[in-house]
Design brief:
Length: 106
């Protein structure tokens, strides 16, 4: 049992990260860090980069012959206005979430 628990962590990619910031989507605006509101019509650039969902096998053969699984947190969203830009990572928990995001936004 103990060895399986340790192997579980070896099986996933290593990422040094901390949760900093918060983003919400409301009816007509983004809410950033609970108090900074950006109306959708003020957004000059919106980029969504999907890297992988949680548990997705990622090919890192050039680094390690054993494939790793993604933690699903390297996905990014960039929201820019004329004078500010915000970049956030977000987690995708499942392949279905990835498909829904692509269907709704692309």
């Amino acid at each position: 049992m103990g060895l399986a628990h340790i192997y579980q962590f070896y099986d996933y990619e290593l990422i040094n990260c901390a949760k900093e910031g918060h983003i919400e989507f409301s009816t007509n605006e983004f809410i950033i860090d609970y108090n900074n509101k950006i109306n959708y019509e003020d957004v000059t650039d919106l980029k969504i980069n999907i890297d992988a969902y949680y548990g997705q096998t990622i090919n890192q053969y050039y680094e390690n012959p054993i494939e790793k699984k993604s933690l699903g947190v390297k996905n990014t969203i960039v929201i820019a206005t004329w004078d500010k830009s915000f970049t956030y990572n977000f987690k995708l928990d499942h392949a279905i979430h990835t498909k829904e995001l692509k269907k709704n936004n692309f």
